[in-house]
Specification:
The structure holds two protein chains of two kinds.
Chain A: H1 2-9, E1 11-16, E2 19-24, H2 26-36, H3 40-49, E3 53-54, H4 66-73, E4 76-80, H5 84-96, E5 100-104, H6 127-138, E6 143-147, H7 156-159, E7 165-168, H8 176-185, E8 190-196, E9 199-205, H9 213-217, H10 226-231, H11 235-253, E10 263-268, E11 273-278
Parallel strand pairs in A: 2-3, 4-5, 4-7, 5-6, 7-8
Antiparallel strand pairs in A: 1-2, 8-9, 9-10, 10-11
Chain B: E1 2-7, E2 22-23, H1 30-36, E3 46-49, E4 52-53, E5 65-69
């Protein structure tokens, strides 16, 4: 039995005073996976089911419990966009151990991405390919696939498979409504965020939410993305916004109430301004 | 009366700088405040007062915190 084997190799790790947790190293995960013909992900799930934490997650503990870590490994997330914000969202999802991640991005890296996009390197490639490489390097247990595809009103409904949550890390405003409509149709919650200069926003959207950020700023197909074009996009802002979006994702996937549900967080990181605003408009 | 006004992204240069309070006439409407600081209606997508999104006819009170947000959507 795999559980017996996992228990046998697990080591107690003391993390504070008399507090400790049973852990399993990735080397042992690999050995056991091979022996039982399990994927790394399956072995790590088995470990968690038996109260053993993969060592790589020990610094998530106790903020992320063993039960929550198992929920994360059992989760399916769609990430749309692998640019500035999307790259940091992916980095977060992979390190926190979301078991199944699918991403869409049709774009190719260019020199002007290097100021902020964590997946970009001086050896330019498709964003989807750079993402695949990075996920494998950081967390090989994760099922990750990235497709070079641009979403539109025609293809979106067939593209989106069953997911626990969708993350909107699209660049620009024009395609975001398309994604929101599709997420609503699939009754899937959506985390969204965006940036311009040192300004950003983040919001968590339930499928039945009446009014969203998208409705408030809707410029239709004429979206000029003037703000970002005029102010650019800084690594400080995309990394903060991406991490805040990943935090909302974590809350939802671990059965905690997302703190930006029906709310929008507005930030200006140059002036240390953070304000959470209720969406329900006053009469 | 004095209020606090926070303008975001490209609107930032139009609002008060360094978190200074802004002097306005008593019971001023959001739309009139926008005229006072040269904010164009088409550029302002979201207005919030004390943490709640409001419409442009909202009447402001002493000490209110007003935010103006444009169409930010970069990724």
């Amino acid at each position: 039995m795999i559980a017996v084997e996992i228990k046998k190799v697990s080591k107690s790790r003391n993390y504070y005073d008399s507090k400790s947790v049973e852990t399993i190293s990735f080397e042992d995960v690999k050995k056991i996976s091979k022996k039982f013909n399990f994927s790394f992900l399956e072995t790590e799930k088995k470990a968690l089911e038996n109260g053993v934490l993969p060592l790589r997650y020990v610094k998530n503990f106790e903020t992320i419990s063993i039960t929550s870590q198992l929920k994360l490994l059992n989760s399916k997330v769609l990430l749309v966009g692998l640019g500035g914000v999307g790259g940091y969202v992916l980095e977060n999802l992979v390190r926190m151990g979301v078991g199944d991640i699918e991403a869409f991005d049709y774009d190719f890296f260019e020199e002007s991405n290097l100021n902020r996009q964590i997946l970009s390197k001086t050896s330019f490639s498709f964003k989807a390919e750079a993402a695949e490489k990075r996920v494998k390097e950081i967390n090989p247990a994760i099922n990750f696939s990235a497709e070079k595809i641009k979403i539109d009103d025609e293809n979106i409904d067939t593209l989106i498979k069953e997911k626990d949550i969708i993350v909107d890390a699209l660049g620009g405003l024009s395609c975001r409504k398309t994604l929101q409509r599709a997420a609503q149709k699939k009754k899937t919650p959506l985390v969204t965020g965006g940036v311009a200069g040192a300004t950003g926003f983040v919001s968590f959207i339930l499928p039945n939410q009446k009014k969203t950020y998208y409705d408030l700023v809707d410029e239709g197909d004429e979206a000029s993305d003037k703000e970002e074009k005029l102010l650019g996009s800084l690594v400080q802002t995309v990394s903060v916004v991406g991490s805040l979006m990943a935090m909302q994702t974590l809350l939802f996937l671990t059965d905690k109430k997302p703190t930006l549900q029906n709310k929008i967080l507005f930030i200006d990181i140059e002036n240390n301004f953070f304000e959470t605003v209720l969406i329900n408009e006053e009469k | 009366m004095k209020i606090k006004v926070k303008c975001f992204a490209t609107l930032a240069k139009l609002g008060p700088q360094n978190d200074e309070p802004l002097e306005v006439t008593k019971d001023i409407k959001v739309s009139d405040l926008m005229k006072q600081i040269n904010l164009k209606k088409e550029d302002v997508k979201i207005v919030f007062v004390n943490g709640v999104i409001v419409k442009l006819n909202k009447v402001l009170k002493e000490g209110d915190r007003v935010g103006f947000f444009p169409a930010v959507g970069g990724g």
